[in-house]
Specification:
single chain; disordered N terminus; mainly alpha; 20 helices
Length: 375
């Protein structure tokens, strides 16, 4: 079997194990069975500018990832960290920074494999590092409209300019990062580490790196100008001609998941019983909206929570604050949590995750509440 075939099969194999996708698909089948007359309106329920923006970003960030440059840079720096605390602080800050522009899941795909590779060559607490990297991408990705799917949806749905979104979210990210860095310093001992350079790295592909970076800024400008669909078509055409293997490695299942979330959440939001329940929550009260967003994210993940709440409130900033806070806590709060723990290759990783994440949610939800309503 050749490399191209393997590249195509890998996403399909991942899709078969994507239980979140199958749950959304099963919900859609049930909704079709109960109200088949609405089937023709389903395409109108999808926010296509958001889908186009997500598609282009996935292609470009996959190009950066497969160029191998960030892996080499990361490995070079990790080998020079003197202690496990310094290594943890570096990885947390790196993951947070990468997630602001490369999206939270791509940041994990870069940082976590490097971290897991340290298990065989050092005594570093790898599982704990991966958990904190998940926290870091949830925190860092909250800053920009392209950092995570919920921000991308809200910025496109309400047509918020890039710089305006960043300015609005900066206080939230600071509230996230300061306690996270303190917790990181506490959770790691400061013992010296010895690492042998034995981890395999991707080969460097400078042409792919330069192409991806050259297209990145124009694509962001196009998104900000509300031309995401046209820009995504251009990006897809260029990579189809020049680097088809990148397209074969893109996480297309994430696009399908996002489309299903739009359809499912908007159909559910139209249900009379759901409307009646949500109306009783009095979401016109900002405090109710905040706590509802945090709580719902724990149950259905923060991306569906953002889509659902956008049907009932135009306060995009408060929704963004609530669902980004909701990414912490239980593992289901954010898709990034699930991705990170799956890559950790440790059956007990979820215990470590919740031991730190649940108390962290209590702290930051309280701090954000004080910031929103008392300052």
């Amino acid at each position: 079997m050749d490399d191209k075939t393997l590249a195509v099969l890998s996403p399909l194999q991942a899709l078969r194990k994507d239980y979140f996708f199958w749950a959304l698909l099963a919900l859609l089948v049930w909704l079709i069975a109960t109200k088949p007359q609405q089937f023709l309106i389903y395409p109108t329920l999808v926010d296509w500018p958001t889908i186009a923006a997500l598609t282009g970003l996935l292609v470009l960030t996959k190009g950066v990832e497969l160029s191998g440059y960030l892996h080499h840079l990361g490995k070079h720096l990790i080998l020079r960290m003197p202690t496990d605390r310094a290594l943890a602080m570096f990885l947390v800050l790196t993951a947070a920074l990468l997630s602001t522009l490369l999206t939270n899941d791509v940041a994990l795909f870069i940082v976590v494999p490097l971290t897991v590779g340290l298990r065989a060559v050092s005594t570093v607490p790898v599982t704990r590092l991966v958990v904190f990297e998940a926290f870091a991408v949830n925190a860092g990705s909250a800053l920009t409209p392209i950092g995570n799917p919920q921000n991308l949806f809200l910025s496109q749905f309400h047509q918020i300019p890039f710089y305006h979104y960043v300015g609005a979210m900066l206080p939230l990210v600071l509230v996230f990062l300061l306690p996270l860095l303190l917790l990181t310093a506490y959770a790691f001992t400061g013992h010296r580490i010895a690492i042998r350079d034995g981890t395999d790295l991707l080969p460097l592909n400078k042409r792919l790196l330069y192409l991806s970076l050259a297209l990145y800024l124009p694509f962001l400008v196009s998104i900000d100008a509300h031309q995401a669909e046209a820009a995504a078509i251009v990006v897809l055409a260029i990579f189809l001609i020049t680097h088809r293997r990148v397209l074969a490695r893109v996480d297309w299942a994430l696009i399908l998941v996002f489309m299903l979330m739009f359809i499912d959440m908007r159909l559910i939001a139209q249900e009379s019983t759901v409307r009646s329940f949500i109306e009783q929550l009095e979401l016109s009260d900002p405090q109710h909206l905040y706590f509802t967003g945090v709580a719902i994210s724990q149950l259905i993940s923060n991306v569906p929570a953002a889509i659902l709440l956008a049907e009932y409130s135009n306060d995009w900033q408060l929704i963004a604050y609530a669902v980004n806070v909701g990414g912490f806590g239980f593992i289901l709060g954010s898709l990034a949590n699930i991705i990170a723990l799956r890559m950790a290759r440790d059956s007990r990783a979820w215990l470590t995750f919740h031991a730190f994440s649940l108390p962290f949610l209590l702290v930051i939800s309280g701090l954000v509440y004080l910031w929103l309503f008392f300052f």
